[in-house]
Write a structure and sequence with these properties.
Order of helices and strands: EEEEEEEEEHEEEEEEEEEEEEEEEEEE
CATH architecture: 6 Propeller
CATH superfamily: TolB, C-terminal domain
Number of domains: 1
Structural class: mainly beta
Amino acid sequence: MKKVFSISILLGIFIINYSCAQDLKPLDLENNNTILTDEVNYEMELVFEDENIIWAIEFFEDNSILASIKSGSLFHYKDGTKTEIKGLPNIYLRGQGGLLDIAFHPNFKENKWLYFSYASEGVGEKGGNTTIARAKLIEDSLVDLEVLYKGSPNTRKGQHFGGRLEFDNDNYLYFSIGDRGNREVNPQDITIDGGKIYRINDDGTIPNDNPFFNTPNAKKAIYSYGHRNPQGMFKHPVTGEIWTNEHGPRGGDEINIIKKGKNYGWPKITYGINYSGTTITKNKSLPDMEQPLYYWLPSIAPSSFEYISSDIYPGWKGSLLAGALVFKHIERIGLNNNKVVSRSKIAEDLGRPRDIKQGPDGFIYVSIESKGLYKILPKK
């Protein structure tokens, strides 16, 4: 049964380190968290109730939904029916690790390849790490499973698996592996995994024009490095660029446009501090390290990322959506020439938004942890 949640109008505007709420000039990096307003012209419709943590969603051509459950299940939601997909590999459940993202091959209709990220254990090793695999989705089963990449070394630490997947216009697959809780070593060392964005061919081989393909001892799949824990990723529909958002520590969540071979600085530079309040580094910039397009203070813990290309929502086209795990809302981010000019809240206090996707029907769908799948509707 469908439920509709109307979001009440809140007149308050949060103003942080800013003197005028009406001034929506583009924000620079030193004044980047000034205005957070409330969206009012929408409703949230519950389209499928589910008490599990739905980590990721994807859409079939008929607008039905494939969803990954963090605890290790895959379901197809269609016409009010939930069907389990069989054939997943063993999933390593620890902390933030489990079954993570899913992505259809751009030619899925013809080849049936489904790609997914998950935490897996190693043979003879304690702990686990992020793994990328593909399998053919035939009716309600996964067949011809192939592991394409597995991060190493394994660790028993339960944080920062990353795990987002995205294909670009040339059918290269990008994915993230977080720093796995070893920030002092992994992100800045290209000979080991963790704290990186990777690019591989759709069959798991590594493109020979990857930036470190000919670097001795380097992990050849690395495309960029110096990341903390990217859990949001989309392909820009106009430029074809890969955009990410990633968790900072206490403060310093980032939006980045991923560039070949670039170092995004973690933990040598950051706008955040330790959770205890102590300093990580005094440096917010260093030579040969990329600045974020935007950073959040305070942190919102961004869980997903989507570009709105739909005309359904008045005034929303061309803006971004990110889930805010800490504050339990969806954030709409207005852009002007790749500068953040506005931020507004959607679905406040409904729950922790784990994934956000625009469906083939042009509507935006969101998975809320332990609640289910919702559809955002423009208010009539």
